[in-house]
């Protein structure tokens, strides 16, 4: 089978490696079947998308809605490279799954409005599938309401005109959407379990997601969460397009 491609942008090795391990575990892919490129480390090499069964985009520290003057040269480069990539992915309806950062990137690319109206603290929240979500094959086997882990400063406030809303929540109306038949993005983190979110809380303690002094209190709350369903969509995605 052709491999899948994971595009990552986390500069911290601990968080980056934990993310890669989570995608491997939940998709059921071996390392040779999931090629990782860390975009923050250098320019994206030339890619022939025909070489891949699909593309996964992990989360990261960048926010699409950051003021232009506050974006680092690395962020500007990564955003430009992802725009060029999506210019190919969307017209071809190439299998694509973007987690968290993916919804901001794809949302902006497709003409949605991404801003800080619906940011969510690091937490476990109930996600509800829409009627379209209940019919989508990537969400097959998930309950209509399931718990997932979130933690984001921005979100999609206005759904792109090309998108179909698949999942929502009380505090963040756009939790997942699809463009075409095969291009997906989530606001929540389908790859995260409780140990994974604890790792990220420690790594990003000073990144502005929560008051740093509240780290241990936050971890204590997170450890009570039960998150077992979201990863199924990654397995479904790979099974559908492998």
Defining key terms:
242 residues; alpha/beta; Rossmann fold; two-stranded antiparallel ribbon; 7 helices; Class_I_gatase-like; GATASE
Protein architecture, described:
The chain is α/β, with parallel strands linked by helices and 242 residues long. It has one domain: Class I glutamine amidotransferase (GATase) domain (Rossmann fold), CATH 3.40.50. The chain is 32% helix and 24% strand. The chain has helices at residues 13-27, 73-92, 101-109, 131-135, 194-203, 215-222, 231-241; strands at 4-8, 34-38, 54-57, 96-99, 113-115, 120-129, 145-152, 155-158, 163-168, 176-179, 183-186. The strands form two sheets. Strands 2-1-3-4-11-10-9-6-7 form a nine-stranded mixed beta sheet, sandwiched between helices. Strands 5-8 form a two-stranded antiparallel ribbon. β10 and β11 (183-186) form a beta hairpin. α1 packs antiparallel against α5 (194-203) and α5 (194-203) runs antiparallel to α6. The chain is globular, with a radius of gyration of 16 Å. The model has no long low-confidence stretch (mean pLDDT 96).
